[in-house]
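ok trying this again, last paste got cut off
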Amino acid sequence: MGNCCGNKRKQWSSGQLNHQKDFIPANPSTGNYSTPVNPPVKLKYIGDTKLVLVGTVSRRAYHFLTPQMILEVDGADARSLTTHPLVIQV
């Protein structure tokens, strides 16, 4: 009897599992963004420095480059991003 990790690895390498379909790039510099899961939500960063947060659903990195910056984020990520005390929905 094989172990579970070895079996998954074997299925993945043989093409039976397709992990690529769930991959969403998190690097904004590439310009490769997935289609949002939910309608976008505007969030504002009220801190004094730069901030990068990663959405828990899309795994996309959101870069707040300046204080008071507003970003449109995937609606599925909004709930997790607003748990940061310096990010608010506008």
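PB: full thing came through this time. Residues 24-89 form one domain.
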